[in-house]
Structures are given as structure tokens and as C-alpha cells.
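Two folds, back to back.
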Amino acid sequence: MAVGVGEQEARALNDGFARWIRTGRPQVTLKAALSVDGMLAPPAAQRRVGQVHWLTSAEARAEVQRMRHGADAVLTGIGTVLADDPLLKDRSGLARRRPLLRVVLDSRLRLPLDSQLVRSADGDLLVFCGMEISGERVRALEAVGVEVARVAGDGGRLELGMVLQELGRRKILSLLLECGAELNGAFLTAGLVDKVVLFYAETELGVTAVPFAVGVGSPFLLEQSMKGVTRERVGVDVRVSGVLRDVWG
């Protein structure tokens, strides 16, 4: 009798549930689109507010939509919202078992009422802010369909473990991070990332560009810490993925 056939495939399908049932938190996947020299975005001086700068190809962006489709929630920070005004919707066109929850970490609750996220809110937008934020600002967002949750923090930074715990309480099993350099670094430094997926474009941005993750070093060093690393072509780009924490271990 054959034993263990398809074990790895079966585990992969249940990674999120395994992380949630063991810890009460979702499985966390960090996704980033990077230049060939491992940078996240051009220098701020070369960008306009709200200007979208695509590093990767249409094929890679379609793959990101499939990743969103496979996640229960997608998370970003207020810095990314203010710089890029993203929508963060699942545009795969595939049927979902539950709506994609869009999550923003915004300690001072600066989320603009006219942002794409707020204007498209339909019970699918959750904003985490600090405990000290006034009720007036909270009420303004709640009046337009945004849910606001307060969590503890320190020095203007929210406690990421508490954020994950709250998402787990809402039965979010899988969380996709689409963040800037600060949050990428914070999640990685705190040891809260389970899986990493990096899309490398052929573009070179140079040493003055926005780094991949503050306080972590280059993504090439991070790859050395990843297990089960795979590399594959997605259009003209290269996708590198691997595991930092075994959700079954």
C-alpha cells in the first residue's frame, strides 16, 4: 500500500487552516514586486502622489490577482495608500468563497475619505488604528462603510501580533501582505511572515530607490533564509518563492 502520496500537495491546500488552528492567526504571505537590483520603488523625488509605477509585466500582475483570489485578506499600510491610492480588489474574475477583506494599518487614522479604498468600501474594508484615536475621526469613516478597530501600539507603530490575532478571531485563514518598505521590515523582523513571493523585473532602480524592507537587508539575503525555494518565469519577470516558517511545525 502506498502511503503519503500527495501529502505535500494536500498540506499546501490546508496551510492557512493549519496556521489558524495551531495559533489562532492567519498564514502570512509577503508579496513584493522588485527591480532586478532588489528595490521596491523609484526614489520619492521621481514620483508624483498617486502615480502608479508598474515594475513587473502584465503576466506577473495577473499572477498577483490569482494570489489575492487565494487569500482571505490583503493588508497594506497607510504609507502605501497615501502614495499609490490602491484599490486592492480581487480582479481575477473567479468566484470567491467569501469577500476579500481589505486591511489597512493606519495608527493615526489618516486614511482619506476620497481614497479609492474608502469610496469602494462595501463591508470589506477594515482599518486598524491606535487606541488613542478620537471618536470623531472613527465615526467619519464608519459613516461611509469603513470598519475601524483599535489596537495597542508603541511609538506610532501598531502591535502586529495583535492585528493578526484580531484577523484570526474573524476567521481569516490566509493573509497577503502588499506593503511598503517599513511594514515589510516590521513583519519580517517580528518573525510573522510564513511565506515570501518575490517578482523580479528586468528594470534596475539604483541605490537611491526605496528598499525592499527597512532593517532587513536585501531580498537576496532573505532568500538564503527561505526553504523550498522555487524560481520560475512569469512573462519576462522571475518569480521567487519560499517558506520562512513551517505552519505545520
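---
second:
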Amino acid sequence: MRSNKKFEVKDYWENKVCGAVYGGIREEGRVNLDKMAKARYELEPFILPFVDFPAWKGKRILEIGVGGGVDFSGWVFGGADATGIDLTEAGVQMTRQRLKELGLSNGNYRLAVADAENLAFPDETFDLVYSWGVLHHSPDTPKAFREACRVTKRGGEFRGLIYHAHCWVGLMFWFRYSLLTARPWKSPRQAMFEHLESPGTKTYTKRETEALLRGAGFKHWDIRFQLSIGDLLTNTPRDKYRSPIYKLVWRLYPRWFVKMMGNRWGLGIMIKAYK
């Protein structure tokens, strides 16, 4: 039986497909997929060199959590033998629409609604497993990492991003949901767990990330931190952050200082792990 928490996560992302708000796009109604894709890589240019689509031509790729299909269409366009899964029907449908609009609807790919904690693939199936900002949402993140490692070929890679516990986003959430609610003892991590995106969003330290990878079965890895659009408030705010006070916060936020402090305090933990 599916856990209640997983149902809550699924329900959240069915109604807010990841990436649908990029570039000022509202979550409701039809999404301008070209605008979404353009905004994604303009706001987060570090994604493209990290994933390196051309390097995986002809390789078997699994993307866990396709969201709006921007990265997945990059695998297909680049000639990878791509498989994509998402916990939501909405994400899979949007990805299919994205591929259709790009003329890639007959490409060498497969898409399915599936659970990252229970992958329906044989051991050592894929050259690369990719998951950007997804596995920290799964109720049993260690199990999801074990599954990712299990289906990775010997000598293959995992590339992805999970959220960092010590970041500017956490500080902002602590201020908003802890300090301003007279509960300063509630940590930034707890504030993010309760209020950042889907219910129960987890964050990790570097040491905890290494423990996840080691426990999953990866042999060695490269980890680095990355400032996100959330840390810099260059993102399009969701509906609950559209009041005049939040507009003022977005306008006055000291992005120059955050950038000066570097990536060490970024929300993103970017991972390359090897089996």
C-alpha cells in the first residue's frame, strides 16, 4: 500500500509540475513549454555542462522525475536511449507534449508513471541514472538511492541534485516560518521540511550525502554545492508568495552579497557518483 506521505507528495506535484512556473509561467492552465525550457537554462546555466547531453549519445539513460520534460527532451534530442519516469501523470503528459512540440514524439525513448523507490528495471540496466531535485522528496530517500544504484551498470554513473541543509533558502524559511511565528527553536531544516515544496522535503549535509551514496552502493563520488534560484530569489514566486510584502522582499534582497559568499551556502548539492 502506498504511504500517505507519498500520496501527499504525488498530489502536490500533480498540481504543480516541476518547472511550470519558470519564466513567469503560472502553474494553472496551459504551459508555454518553449518559454519554460528557455528560462530553465537561462536561470540555471550550470545544468547544461553538468548533464553534458552530447556525451551520452547512444547510451542507456534513466531520468527519475522528468517534471516538465525539459532535461528529458535534451537526452532524446542528443541521441540517448532514454527512459523517463515520474510519480505523476501530469509530469509524464507534459513531457510527452514537450517531445511532440519538438518533433521528437517518435524518438528512441520510453516514459512511464513510476515510483523511484520501486524501479521496475533489472539490475545494471542503465549507463547513467539522472535525477535533478527529486529524490529528497521521496519519503524513503535512502531506498530511492539504493534503487538508482541497483539499476546503474557496473562502471556507470549517477548524476543529480538534492537539497543542502545549510543554505540561504533555509535561513529565509527559518526567518519566515520560525522566527516570525514565535518559534525560533524550529531549525531551518525543519522549516524547509514543512514548507519547501512538497510535504516532507528533506535536506542534507555533505557528510549525510556521502552516507546516502555509500549506503546505496556507489564506490566513489564528486560532490559540490551550488547556489540556486531560490537562494538568489531569481525564481518566479509561487502563488503564496505574491503579496505586496513578498514583492518588496524580492526587490530588496541582497543578491550581490549572496553571490559574493559563493556556492558553499547554496541549496543545491550536485552529485556525480560512480558504481
